[in-house]
């Protein structure tokens, strides 16, 4: 019906706004004024537009209806679409996720919200065994056009059981697509793409980004706007070191790039957007240009997203590396509650700056054991 | 046991309790008075697949006074926690228990510290009931060294294993199979003790509850599942989440009891009864009809899904502390002034604990890497920058 719109990124200049050519010929004249939009609003508008466009799309989860959403992402949707399409579920993830997947088997297009992805662990069997693998096992008969979405990773002071990042876990599973937006443009474009996609998509948002505002162009605001799955975005062009990140960490990486620029290091920041499929070609092309890599993520380091990126670069672009690859990740411990310990457990801008400098041989190598 | 129905309040006063009207000279020994008293619960118990215990509960003036003091402490503590959260000294999640104090207090009165309790994240008062201190509570809430988890757990992760309190759990429903596991171990070790696994009406629909209950019934585990039914699972009323909100009946073949959870004496009676039952016949469900005055957590105003009239109505008609106050006054066990003095003392204790907790330092940075394992085999562990901050797990 609507189709995925190809994104054409500007060849130079590194403008944060993607230039989109709508498939549907449109005589509307967009004003060049740039509007600010909160990520929360971006997600809400994406859900609204997709539900309006396709009657098979429905939303279910805890407090999504009458409460207007635990984080207000689904505000106004119950009033607009009614209780048949916006369903408040009991606190029973295994049950309602299975029900969602079953509805997708039959041909509907569920959006299942997890209040946080920590609770998705109660339902992970259905995400992996019932959703991810079905198209393969049935040789194409049973496709699962479902989206699992919700906040992922650390918030502020929520402790060990509520701060886990699941990007690496879900991204290791064939049959799943895993997306993680940073800006409002990402949120809108990727969620719309996810809902339109015929395969199961895990959509990892971030609670601390919900209230952040980003500039959005008229193209982004158009209801036909969509971003491609599997393509990373170069948020900031550079030539000395490649920094890869996703979700909230993109913001920290951009701040680190500012600091590095003042010290004469030009960092290229890649916003992965898509964890699976991983945009290996963009990452490798970047490293072949800069010759240095720093991967940054919030999740645990072992077997993480950064580990996969490092392996990919070493496999594809070994000859281009001028320095060992660097990984910044969450500390290898359950998330502590105390504020000072929590700060040490999560990547900070200084960590990214330090690792980038190491990769550029601009600092004292390897500190002694703590 | 002897049942003495209340004819008139003063008829139960013994010689010891005869009011000494010129008592300014003598201190009435109410706090140590163990003269038995029999009180009727506010409402009868409703039972499922078993015979309900009697409505007449044995107690003493000492016990009633201690109920009053302890519940007043819990109430004050939760209200103080609200202020600390708004002052941003407490971060993350904070789920308050005010209104539900009678469940924690009544339960403690009916069991021993050798029995185990496990609950979800609304755990501050349960921790206090198990013998935790106000300093440990406030320090933990503020993420300081003197907290019961040394600042590493936070509001939802209080524990006190030495008096049978196993936490403090963030994932809805998870504590129920864990509680049945505690009961399994108690039976395995022949300890003649029981486990109370507490959960809310929101968790009552979790599949893992029924899985664990089935096994507990099959294996005759001394597990008592206690549904603290405050009628709202976050913002969802019980009738919107459960086809059958008669949680005490949901065990089907497992007996159940419905209890007025705002009546500490009824809770005590039910827990005593349940413990006896569980030791002989296996699991049981207790449904405590209770109410929380605050919203689900500090980020929920609690008034978008229920009316302010409902909240103030419960506060007026069923408040657990007021009930005990009325009982104490009706039986002439203390004067209004004495009770107000207790409340003043409690307020001071809470304020002192907060002041002391504010002085408690944050945990040492090295604590980031402690207690990951019991036995770490010298494995390397990394901070956010693995080449900058690393340690060795002992």
Automatic annotation (TrEMBL), chain A:
It comes from the Eukaryota. It catalyses: N(6)-[(R)-lipoyl]-L-lysyl-[protein] + pyruvate + H(+) = N(6)-[(R)-S(8)-acetyldihydrolipoyl]-L-lysyl-[protein] + CO2. SMART domains: Transket_pyr (SM00861). Its EC number is 1.2.4.1. GO terms for cellular component: mitochondrial matrix; pyruvate dehydrogenase complex. Gene3D superfamilies: 3.40.50.920, 3.40.50.970. Its main location: mitochondrion. Pfam families: Transket_pyr, Transketolase_C. The pyruvate dehydrogenase complex catalyzes the overall conversion of pyruvate to acetyl-CoA and CO2. This is Pyruvate dehydrogenase E1 component subunit beta. It comes from Citrus sinensis.
